[in-house]
Amino acid sequence: MGDQLRYTPDGPRELRDSDYRPDSLTENKPKVIRNASKDLIQANAKFEPVVDPQEHANLQEILDKRAGRQRGKPRAQKPDQNPLGCRTFDMNCGWPMYRVPSNGSFRYKCGLYQQSHAQQCNHNHVDGPTAAKFVLSCIKQRLLSPRLLGKVEVKLREMARSKSNDSLNQHEIQQKHSQLAEVKEELQQVEKNLARAKTDRQYEVISQEFDRLSAQEESLQREIFKLEQIDQPMDIDQDIRKVLETIEKLTGLAHKVESFPEAKLLFDLVNARLFLKFEARQVERRVLNKIVGGKVTFGDTPPPIKLYEGATTRRKVKGTTNPVKEMPNRSAFSSKTSVSSAEEVNSLRNVNRGDRI
Predict the structure, then answer these.
(1) Domain boundaries, the chain
(2) How many whole angstroms separate alpha carbon 294 and alpha carbon 277?
(3) What is the DSSP string of 28-55?
(4) Cβ pair 266, 80 in contact under 8 A
(5) Nearest in space to 111 (alpha carbons), one of 267, 307, 329
(6) What angle do helix axes 128-143 and 236-256 make, rounded to 10 degrees?
(7) How far apart are CA 176 and CA 8, in angstroms?
(8) pLDDT digit string (tens) for 223-280?
(9) Which of 109, 74, 73 is nearest to 313 (CA)?
(10) In this structure, how many other beta carbons lie within 10 angstroms of the beta carbon of residue 94?
């Protein structure tokens, strides 16, 4: 990103007004310019990639999406003091609940309520330490079941037996072998034609076809090797033993949890997520949003609601025309729908109209 000059086909030029971001909060910051992939110079390295290129591309796509949603969010100063960060969700709107300080402690408050300045959702919040202890108790309840290990072992053996009887890779391996046989036949034919070439041009054209088929043959051989490695018969007893050892470690960790960093580690290992549902309730003279239900999930269990996946910046959230959740009608909690200004009623304080203050 150039903060002084921009390069053009005619040489460098000074920045113009159109080169700056339109956001009023960052009006003095120039836009980020990314060249198209066709304009980038790339070359093959002389070593195998450290990670799979497709996995790297998928990860880069996730990071790009996250960058658009996380813009403007301050980084946590003490992430270990945020045990349920990105793991608590408001079921009323699908937004994550953000950690905010509260009287020397902290709580989780609806992100849509904060980012829209209370325009598109309610003041839904939950005490942070209480929520963390609740999720921790749910994990202990599952891990400390006396019949857990036996059930897990039986389920794992059933899954391993069904997988060994019906291998998903065998069909694909057979297809690759068929393609490899066809390529080898074509290579033999090209070799014969190469020997019969009479002119330099014929030799060059046939050589190019030979190189293409040779590269295709090597590629198919590598793919078959990878598939055969995946399809190798597994040691069921050893794999089950590893899973049971992991469960025992989680059980021991659940017993020893005494601080938020340890709880966060346990939540990350089991991928615990907390979903809370709120409703307005009459509390004396006030109407407060109270928790009326929820759900705790572990592992790859799908969420019980559709989670919000859009932009989270205040500028974009407040600019939306369709609120995610309408505000509830709180007048239903009032016994009187309208009050005359001349009528003597209870005020917001502990006095009545007409009393001497």
Answers:
(1) 1-32, 168-230
(2) 5
(3) TSBPP----GGGS-----SS--SS-HHH
(4) no
(5) 307
(6) 140
(7) 48
(8) 888 877 765 555 667 777 777 777 777 777 666 666 788 888 888 888 999 999 999 9
(9) 73
(10) 20
